[in-house]
């Protein structure tokens, strides 16, 4: 059974606003898909930057990371195809990458194999971090 710490967490107004924005975007994405609503405005999303926000956490609050993961979950359920969200993936050279470079990458498109591995490791680390925060005990002591 999960129990949450009783002490308040320090969440800046900027982080709270960002978390709310990610959750709102995820909700809109799910709603648009479920009810096939008309879209008048699209969101452009640089997938590399979103993944880097999770992979390289840099002291971001867990609630913000969970909000981003909820959004990714919503877009993954639609196979990265939605009238609401346009996925933009820029390469390091600044040119837009159009075709995957390998068969593995084609199966994961628009994600690369390396991004999937990095995301999986980062999500595992996030789960461990949350577990340690909730139970305040090192994993190895059990």
Automatic annotation (TrEMBL):
InterPro entries: Immune_Signaling-Apoptosis_Reg. GO terms for biological process: meiosis I. It comes from the Eukaryota. This is Uncharacterized protein.
């Amino acid at each position: 059974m999960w129990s949450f710490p009783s002490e308040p967490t320090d969440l800046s107004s900027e982080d709270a606003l960002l978390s709310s924005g990610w959750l709102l975007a995820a909700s809109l994405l799910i709603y648009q898909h479920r009810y096939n609503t008309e879209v008048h405005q699209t969101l452009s999303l640089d997938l590399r930057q979103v993944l880097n926000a999770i992979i390289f956490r840099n002291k971001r609050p867990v609630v913000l990371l969970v909000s981003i993961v909820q959004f990714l979950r919503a877009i993954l359920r639609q196979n990265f195809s939605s009238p609401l969200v346009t996925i933009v993936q820029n390469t390091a050279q600044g040119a837009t990458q159009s075709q995957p470079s390998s068969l593995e990458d084609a199966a994961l498109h628009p994600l690369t194999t390396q991004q999937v591995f990095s995301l999986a490791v980062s999500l595992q680390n996030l789960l461990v971090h949350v577990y340690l925060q909730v139970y305040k005990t090192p994993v190895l002591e059990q």
